Amino acid sequence: MSTTNTKPQAYQQRLMQVILAPVITEKATFIAESGAKPQIALRVASDATKSEIKDAVELLFKVEVDSVSVLNRKGKLKRTGRFMGRRRDNRIAYVSLKKGQEFDFAEVN
Hints:
Elements: H1 9-16, E1 19-22, H2 26-33, E2 39-44, H3 50-61, E3 65-73, E4 77-80, E5 83-86, E6 90-97
Antiparallel strand pairs: 1-2, 2-6, 3-6, 4-5
């Protein structure tokens, strides 16, 4: 696990803003339950980098991260009456944990 205590306070505050919410879908549940490595899906800030996501997960959830994959999902066009609107874009991070690591949303700081 990286030594997050030695990182500057401003960087730690930035890491607290990187993770927005967990992704709770059929695909995310299937990925979390299957495979040799535990994996979680998180909605993250649109300007977050892979290294920031890794550091944020290690800081908030006290687990060791193996790898991070990022997916940019474009917002869909939606109609409201005669007006066209657009949902916002999403950035999803799939975080793989090292073997022996477990993830529990209930134990978040």
